[in-house]
What does this fold into?
Amino acid sequence: MPLSNEGEGKMPEFIFAYHGGKAPDTPEEGEKAMAAWGAWYEEMGPNLVNPGNPVGMSKTVSTSGIADDGGANPLSGFTVVRADDMDAACKMAQGCPMVADGSGSVEVAPIMEM
It folds into this structure.
């Protein structure tokens, strides 16, 4: 399947799914964290499609019901970006503040056009 916008002269889009991270302990830590995220978003410039948001605790829905397990690897937030290819998107993800401080990871996936 083609990547989003492929063939239209536009760069494909990728979702960054965040896992981990931690809530700041003090207002000062919160300001520092927001500044780090803001700087990273600014670095991505026009390739930032949707800065996304943090997310709350998830539930897993399956044929066996609804579980309050938070998932096997709980999602903590998301962002949507444009990049030339998967390698370029992964390189962008390496700049994520959660990756830089070791508190979390970024799952990178192409958004498929249907």
Observations:
- Residues 27-44 form the longest helix (18 residues).
